[in-house]
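hiii, so i know i said id send this last week but things got crazy w the move. better late than never?? heres the sequnce for the chain we talked about at the cafe, plus the structure i predicted for it. fair warning i was half asleep when i ran it
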Amino acid sequence: MSTFGRFFRVTTFGESHCKGVGCIVDGVPPSLALTEADIQPQLTRRRPGQSKLTTPRDEKDMVTIMSGTEKGFTLGTPLALFVPNENVRPKDYKEMDLVPRPGHADYTYQMKYGTRASSGG
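okay and structure toks below
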């Protein structure tokens, strides 16, 4: 299960080498001011290619609020966020199918789900 939290329940989805990644946030109260511009600075902080420790893949990491807001305010319904992947190259990681990648959750994923997604976790 990819869900955590008590007050805000967050469910994540997607992989790094598929169409994108996202999350559903449940428990968000209505009438909070919230737009993509409020979230984007946090994604920009962790954007790939900013240091030798991050992936060299060039991704814009632009968030889209798919549901849960209207006219810049939360509705009290689940909030759906999506970040599309643009530089998807799963074949670059084929040799890692047998060995967990350093700095990734490959081993943990395999222990939890009994399989490993070559598209990333």
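btw The chain is about 15% helix and 25% strand. thought thatd interest u
miss u guys!!
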